[in-house]
Amino acid sequence: MRAASVAAVAVVALVLAGCGGSSAPPRHRIHLTAFEKAGRALFILECGTCHTLADAGTGGIVGPDLDSPPRHASQVRKTIANGFGQMPPVQLTARKVAAIAAYVAAATK
Predict the structure, then answer these.
(1) Do 101 and 73 touch, CB atoms closer than 8 A?
(2) What is the pLDDT of residue 28?
């Protein structure tokens, strides 16, 4: 009986943890503009499977953890457009790239 209870708790914990996926809720809240909020949604969709960013609730392990050091929007735009290291250039509209970059800069202040 006790083993069944422990197993049930373990299953609930795994479900609540989300296994590091991009659907996990943000760990802390920051004030974002509407443009940055759009960037957050795009970041989760386009970048979250590879990159960890606490505010976005993403836990990617392929790319670097973006929580520190702070990122500047111009740096993020350049990296998305040109790629860096193992990351290939990403084909997104300039507006989407700008939104993601604005969000990452705001989330890493």
Answers:
(1) yes
(2) 58
